[in-house]
Amino acid sequence: MQQKKPTSLDAEKVIEINGLYKSFGSYHVLRGVDLDLYKRENLVVLGKSGTGKSVLIKIIVGLLTPDQGDVRVLGQHVDQISYKDLLALRLKVGFSFQNSALYDSMTVRQNLQFPLVRNQKQLTKAEVQYEVERVLDAVGLLQTINQMPSELSGGQRKRIGIARTLILKPEVMLYDEPTAGLDPITCLEINALINEVQERFHTSSIVITHDLTCAKAVGNRVAMLLDGKFERQGTFEEVFNTEDSRVKPFYEYNFIQ
Question: How far is Cα 60 from Cα 38, in angstroms, rounded to an integer?
Answer without folding.
Answer: 15
